[in-house]
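Hi V.,

Quick status before I head out on leave. The structure for the redesign project is tokenized and pasted below; the design run finished overnight.
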């Protein structure tokens, strides 16, 4: 096993197994919300390309015990809200370093075909954002099942939404039909009260790109290092003289009494790159063999690996060979207090970072 030498929101959730088992047969077809990308509540409905309506079969019903992270609204006497002259209720909250506004239409957004449903809108309301800004976020809306004491949504609604100056609002026009919502056996509206929740997780763009260019005919490099007076080595780490391999400078490193998991029981061998010979933002994809020469019968001992070299931290083998095997004279690896180590390697490719 190779190793480097260094010198220098989970949330528990549970899903229902089937509609028949949890008594919510009707709700398997609910939460068929369609994300609509319009800014004006009176504008024509436009379906997002990843609309749940485009998914074959019923959406997967997702249940969990954990309270939604960012917004929770309990409404008592939902019927009174439905009969009031207002078309929707709105509230503000913060998530991911941004300010948001959520709107709930108890009778649906009728101007966009939401009759007989509950509609939900999410708007980014920050006004001090820089020119050309974009925010990508995952929006999930929940209903609370008061009978089973779980928060319910559809996994199909957890899409990455793109907000920018020309599109600050997304909506789910038909989140749930009112017939299903009003049926008290489903647990969403019980004794006139209900609860909604929301989570908005902002996707931070911290991506780092790489480009691997393979070398068609890599040059094989070999360096042999003879260590005399091995028993006189007092330092934990002993390195060879620098040598050129291809266009780069390397060293072989030995830990006579082991390193890491091999400490005290093994000799450890590593191949180390001198990063002063490496161009900026470049890594090397290297295939290498570290070999301990048998000085009696030529039956050398070796270990092979391939790794990406990009810093002065070497790659190699903490448990290259046990100290007992190495020091036993008739094994031929340490003879007359001398050992011979060989490094053979080839740079298979160059990796450029962007």
């Amino acid at each position: 096993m190779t190793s480097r030498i260094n010198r220098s929101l989970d949330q528990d959730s549970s899903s229902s197994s089937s509609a028949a088992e949890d008594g919510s047969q009707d709700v398997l077809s609910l939460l068929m919300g369609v994300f609509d990308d319009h800014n004006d509540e009176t504008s024509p409905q436009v379906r997002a390309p990843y609309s749940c309506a485009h998914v074959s079969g019923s959406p997967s019903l997702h249940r969990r015990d954990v309270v939604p992270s960012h917004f929770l609204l309990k409404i008592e006497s939902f019927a009174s809200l439905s009969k009031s002259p207002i078309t929707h209720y709105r509230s503000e909250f913060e998530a991911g370093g941004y300010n948001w506004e959520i709107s709930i239409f108890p009778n649906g957004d009728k101007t966009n075909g939401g009759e007989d449903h509950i509609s939900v809108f999410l708007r980014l309301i920050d006004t001090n954002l820089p020119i050309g800004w974009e925010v990508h976020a995952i929006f999930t809306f929940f209903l609370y099942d008061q009978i089973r004491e779980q928060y319910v949504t559809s996994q199909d609604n957890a899409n990455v939404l793109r907000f920018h100056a020309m599109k600050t609002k997304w909506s789910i026009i038909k989140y749930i039909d009112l017939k299903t919502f009003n049926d008290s056996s489903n647990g969403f509206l019980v004794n006139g009260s209900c609860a909604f929740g929301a989570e908005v997780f902002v996707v931070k763009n911290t991506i780092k790109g790489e480009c691997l260019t393979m070398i068609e005919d890599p040059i094989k490099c070999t360096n042999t290092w003879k260590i005399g007076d091995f028993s006189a080595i007092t330092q934990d780490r002993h390195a060879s003289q620098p040598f050129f391999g291809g266009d780069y400078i390397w060293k072989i490193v030995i830990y006579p009494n082991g390193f890491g998991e091999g400490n005290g029981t093994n000799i450890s061998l590593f191949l180390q790159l001198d990063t002063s010979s490496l161009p900026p933002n470049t890594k090397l994809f290297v295939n290498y063999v570290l070999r301990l020469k048998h000085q009696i019968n030529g039956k050398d001992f070796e270990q092979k690996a391939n790794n990406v070299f990009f810093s002065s931290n070497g790659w190699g083998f903490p448990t290259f060979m046990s100290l007992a095997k190495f020091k036993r004279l008739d094994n031929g690896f340490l003879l007359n207090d001398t050992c011979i180590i060989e490094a053979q390697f080839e740079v298979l490719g160059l990796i450029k970072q962007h």
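Above is the designed sequence. The first helix runs from residue 19 to 22.

G. will cover questions while I'm gone.

Best,
W.
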